[in-house]
Design goal:
Layout lengths: L1 H29 L5 H8 L3 H7 L3 H26 L2 H18 L1 H12 L10 H17 L8 H7 L12 H17 L6
Amino acid sequence: MQHNDNAPLRSDAQRNRERILDVAVAELTRCPDVPLSAIAKKAGVGQGTFYRNFPNREALILEIYRHEMRQVAENATQLLERLSPPEALRTWMDRLAEFAMTKAGLADAIRLATSAPGGPAKPSPTPVTEAADLLLRTNEEAGTIRPGVTSDDFMLAIAGLWQMTPTEDWRPRATRLLDIVMDGLRAGAPRS
């Protein structure tokens, strides 16, 4: 009997956590230093519930970072299911640009949280690196990109995305930059 009493609480707690994360993503994207109390209020949870889930700002931001990175990474697998390897890679690059630009406020919040003295180290974006690796290996096997490109090479090549500011008209610049990277990946491909 005890087990059943606890089950609804767990799903409520899970819903609260997800609602806090959803509100936090929107609010931090809009304003990197929005107070936690404003996030809790907008999520409709009390301070106690909020701090039970996220004892401090860093815990909240790092959880958002992990969540967002997972979503970007999962997108790679979905694209490979319905597009050719080079189309999947190029589309994923656009999604990454979209993420970098629309979540710029979030990136600022992550930077603020992880650069504080004694703050947590920024987690490595392994899901994104793994997704890039999956796309590169699939393309290499298909013979559509030059062999031997590592995910580190790729992330360095597209690092210019994070130098652009979301206030400018970033889309044409991002498209141009990513087309150049894609052309470079195709150069020397067995089936180019």
